Amino acid sequence: xTSTAESLRQRVNRALNSQKPKTITVLSCLLAVEDELGYIxxxxxxxxxxxxxxxxNDVWGVASFYTNFQFQPPxxxxxxxxxxxxxxxLGAMDAIGEVLKSLDLSGEGTTDDGAISLRYNTCLGACxxxxxxxVDHHLIGRITPExxxxxxxxxxxxxxxxxPGAP
Length: 167
Ligand code: FES
Prior knowledge:
The protein is built from 7 helices and 5 strands. The chain is of the alpha+beta class.
């Protein structure tokens, strides 16, 4: 090994070792809670404040800055419709219109019976198959407004037939 090569390795290792250990932040805590519960309840905000030695106001300040955090318990099923640029051009808004009608919602939210939550998504990562929606994280591509309404209608039907605990 040449001294030039050794010097390069030393520099690489110095750079690697100088990295700060992963830090715990209010945001990382909120993300962990959201992953676990699907929303941020008041109790969680209090726990995050205690855990990070922050104030409740600090925690809510961070939580409210990011639009992806939810503050109400999610429905038992999660429907997402992509309205990102590609899906938008391919007709997502018509599909969203049908989904809203079918769920009797005026925008993102949860149906009155707590069965289904609707969220918009800026890219579900399957643009080539747009417009795309997902039901409980299962992607469905090339949806038409009719197909979107049918999918949601079937999901509602399963809730009615099987009751609140129905899958
Ligand atoms: S823009 Fe809709 S999946 Fe990417």
